[in-house]
Amino acid sequence: MTERNELCWCGSGKKYKKCHLSSDEEKRAPPAQRGVPARTSAKAPQKGRQKTPAQIDGMRRSGVFNGQLMDYIRRYVVAGAVTDDINTLIHGYTVDHGHIPACLGYRGNKRVFPKSCCISRNNVVCHGIPSKSELLSDGDIVNIDLTTIVDGFHGDSSETFMIGAVDRNARRLVGVAARALIAGIDAVRPGAHLRAIGEAIEPFVNAQGCSVVRQYTGHGIGAKFHESFSVYHHIEPRGEDVIMMPGMTFTIEPMINLGGFEVTTDRKDGWTVRTQDGSLSAQFEHTVLVTDGGAEVLTLTPSQRAAGVRLFVDGEAYR
């Protein structure tokens, strides 16, 4: 269980006591103390979580640009690239198009994120800070995480790239992470519990001999970077009271480790999250909209959309 002064399990960067503590305590209380029946309330629409048609249009625009940005930066994620130079390109492309990089200046746990994207290499799980001294090398795997604000709405996606000759275990991990995201997207359907996403992802990942990071989750997204609910990628009872309804938008972003699921946060910079056992980690992410028929992936890149797929991994198409 997360302690009061630890970082919240949701990945917001805030202390648990200032984030999900009160809502978790309410969920742990007996149904009678919450004032609602345990099962019947879960079937009710989630007030405030379904977006209006105008808001959905805004989310679609932000998703389109976010995908465009991912396709733009793809050619620069190569051996010899400096991660801070990649960040500069991402920042320039975003502002030149009149939009805002959401990561730059994001405040979490009393620290401000200093860059316009997250770049997480090898055993870095998430929130890697681009650096002038960090070069991509042959054999690396590296995740590029982009969040952009377009006319007040957020689009959020990430991909793990394989640099040059990647060894067999790293290549297998990246493939498992890609398929885990697709499994999560396929679990989205109106009227289903949000927990169905984790129930689809974790058994698949475990069967491949990998693990799902539990300390960080997907999240509601819209005018705010992190909206009021979390999307678990593992089997988690705390997700039971959220029902997927048409008009909801959220991210699915499973972080998959080759070793154990435990992670640790760098005490010096307060952001960089690494696997506790030093094993490799990979991640893919999309922002999705719940529709009457399932999920609409808002952050498809132009190349993915043209090919009719949801991900490319080293040239392989994942449908």
Structural notes for this entry:
The protein has about 325 residues and is α+β, with helices and mostly antiparallel strands. The chain has a single domain (about 15-25, about 50-319), classed as Creatine Amidinohydrolase, CATH 3.90.230.10. Helix content is about 25%, strand content about 20%. Strands 1, 4, 6 and 7 form a four-stranded antiparallel beta sheet that branches. The protein is globular.
Low-confidence stretches: 26-45
Give the name of the CATH superfamily.
Creatinase/methionine aminopeptidase superfamily
Question: How would you describe the shape?
Answer: globular
Oligomer: single chain
Distance between the termini: 37 Å
Give the C-level CATH assignment. Answer: Alpha Beta
Using brief descriptors, characterize the structure shown.
three-stranded antiparallel sheet; Creatine Amidinohydrolase; alpha+beta; 319 residues; 7 helices; globular
Could you give a quick summary of the protein structure above?
By secondary structure, the protein is of the alpha+beta class. 27% of the residues lie in helices and 22% in strands. The longest helix has 22 residues, at 53-74.
Describe the secondary structure blueprint for this structure.
Elements: H1 21-28, H2 31-34, H3 53-74, H4 83-96, E1 100-101, E2 107-108, E3 111-112, E4 118-121, E5 124-126, E6 141-150, E7 153-162, H5 168-186, H6 195-207, E8 211-212, E9 218-219, E10 230-231, E11 249-252, E12 255-257, E13 263-265, E14 273-275, E15 281-283, E16 286-290, E17 295-297, H7 302-307, E18 311-313, E19 316-318
Antiparallel strand pairs: 1-6, 2-3, 4-6, 5-14, 6-7, 8-12, 9-10, 11-16, 12-15, 13-14, 16-17, 18-19
